[in-house]
């Protein structure tokens, strides 16, 4: 999501020009301006009168305006729905993290399904589950961007400890859907870029040579990190992978075709001619059979399995168990809604008909206004085409707000924000309330009584107001609280 002006925030580059729609519509604006120029020259210089009646302009202009407005509004509604869904993910993830970290007990004894477990083992267990919670929005991000598999720098380190096989035989055919690789991971070019790490298939573990320094950079695949200090993957576990890890964020490279769309047609023509000229050299990549797993769904299954274990073991109260199930349901519903937004574009027939209608309207526009606007027909047509085509292109760009365009939602920022929140939750030490409530730094009855909690406790049942104008005990406490309310009401209201 563009939080500030993308053109002028940070160092300006030509790539930031893509935040506008000018680079997409300027060929069309130039074409209709050229038509308007030709009409104005022929008519105003007296070669031939090309003017036609403007009745059609009035009728079609109103209809096209309404349709384009509907197109842009529907696209922005999808954009807003996508942002709301990510807010739901953030809220549900934060709630689950708090419930697990605070309500799941540490010290455990042998009882039913629960074995004896030390405090350290319990903390490791809960922190690992919170890492899975952190992995869920990351998996959703890659899922929405059609990036298959789990071998990414920001995803694999968080889930690498999950089981890989359906049984102890560790046969390739028994690999769980989560760990099925995408065909691109088996491509020869990928294997040539980075050597594979040796893997112990019996245990599903990577054999790391301890004589060499362990670093995620040895298994990275893709562009190098930026030169500044921003490297969020450095905060993740340092785990080696049997497959090269793809970048956490891999937007398509900006080429000259993004600024001059007309060249795409010539590129297509060249490709067609080359294929006809050299038909025997065409290559057809053969992929192995594979399973495209729904990674967020797989992660939610492990989370549901953990909550079921807590309930079967009696480690959480029924109200907490209900809250855990409810927030897991929110994650599932949100994933379905995001998939709906991503995979339900506006029908192509509607888009094509709207664009062709607008082209015809702009094509006949100079013929209808040249008799009254004269030479102003040229800039007038250019402005009208820029305005209408711009709104149409904006609707098409924000229709799917989950990609890498500068106007899309910043999914990477959302994932990092959730990561920070979960780590903040795990920094909470679950102290006994008595350890901080009765501190000398706490003044619970302020502003009427600014004595510390320790001083108030020392008074015992003989509490009296600072003014000593009420009998000791509960009556004094109530009078102090009423005075606090009166002081707050007085000090916090402006005098108008």
From TrEMBL:
Segments of this protein annotated with the region Disordered: 175-251
Ranges of Low complexity composition bias in the record: 211-221
Transmembrane segments: 25-45, 51-70, 358-376
Location of the protein in the cell: Cell membrane
One annotated Gene Ontology cellular component of this protein: plasma membrane
Keywords: Cell membrane, Ion transport, Membrane, Transmembrane, Transmembrane helix, Transport
Matches recorded under Pfam families: Bestrophin_2
A GO MF term: chloride channel activity
UniProt main location, coarse: membrane
Basic and acidic residues bias locations: 190-206, 240-251
Protein's membrane topology: Multi-pass membrane protein
Domain of life: Eukaryota
Keyword presence, Cell membrane: yes
Official protein name in the record: Uncharacterized protein
Source species of the chain: Candolleomyces aberdarensis
């Amino acid at each position: 999501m563009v939080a500030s002006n993308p053109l002028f925030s940070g160092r300006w580059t030509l790539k930031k020009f893509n935040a506008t729609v000018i680079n997409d519509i300027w060929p069309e604006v130039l074409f209709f301006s050229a038509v308007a120029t030709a009409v104005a020259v022929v008519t105003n210089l007296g070669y031939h009168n090309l003017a036609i009646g403007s009745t059609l302009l009035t009728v079609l202009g109103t209809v096209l305006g309404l349709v384009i407005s509907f197109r842009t509004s529907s696209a922005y509604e999808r954009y807003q729905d996508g942002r709301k869904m990510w807010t739901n993910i953030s809220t549900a993830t934060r709630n689950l993290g708090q419930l697990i970290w605070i309500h799941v007990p540490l010290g455990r004894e042998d009882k039913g399904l629960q074995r004896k477990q030390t405090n350290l083992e319990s903390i490791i267990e809960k922190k690992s589950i919170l890492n899975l919670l952190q992995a869920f929005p990351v998996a959703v991000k890659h899922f929405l961007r059609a990036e298959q598999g789990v071998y990414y720098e920001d995803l694999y380190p968080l889930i690498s400890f999950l089981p890989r096989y359906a049984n102890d035989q560790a046969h390739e055919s028994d690999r769980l859907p989560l760990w099925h690789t995408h065909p691109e991971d088996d491509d020869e070019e990928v294997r040539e870029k980075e050597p594979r790490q040796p893997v112990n298939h019996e245990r599903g573990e990577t054999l790391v040579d301890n004589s060499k320094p362990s670093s995620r950079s040895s298994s990275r695949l893709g562009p190098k990190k930026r030169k500044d200090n921003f490297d969020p993957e450095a905060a993740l576990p340092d785990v080696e992978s049997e497959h090269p890890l793809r970048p956490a964020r891999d937007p398509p490279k900006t080429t000259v075709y993004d600024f001059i769309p007309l060249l795409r047609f010539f590129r297509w023509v060249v490709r067609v001619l080359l294929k006809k000229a050299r038909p025997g050299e065409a290559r057809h990549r053969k992929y192995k059979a594979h399973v495209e797993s729904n990674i967020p769904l797989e992660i939610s299954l492990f989370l549901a399995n953990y909550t079921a274990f807590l309930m079967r073991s009696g480690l959480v109260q029924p109200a907490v168990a209900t809250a855990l199930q409810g927030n897991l349901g929110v994650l599932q519903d949100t994933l379905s809604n995001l998939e709906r937004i991503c995979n339900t574009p506006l029908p192509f027939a509607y888009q094509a008909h709207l664009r062709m209608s607008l082209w015809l309207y702009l094509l006949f526009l100079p013929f209808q206004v040249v008799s009254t606007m004269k030479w102003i027909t040229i800039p007038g047509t250019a402005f009208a085409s820029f305005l209408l085509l711009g709104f149409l292109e904006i609707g098409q760009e924000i229709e799917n707000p989950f990609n890498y365009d500068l106007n899309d939602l910043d999914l990477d920022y959302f994932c990092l924000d959730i990561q920070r929140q979960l780590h903040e939750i795990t920094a909470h030490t679950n102290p006994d309330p008595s350890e901080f409530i009765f501190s000398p730094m706490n003044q619970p009855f302020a502003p009427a009584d600014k004595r510390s909690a320790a001083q108030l406790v020392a008074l015992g049942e003989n509490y009296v107001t600072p003014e000593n104008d009420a009998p000791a005990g509960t009556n004094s406490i109530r009078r102090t609280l009423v005075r606090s309310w009166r002081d707050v009401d007085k000090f916090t209201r402006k005098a108008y």
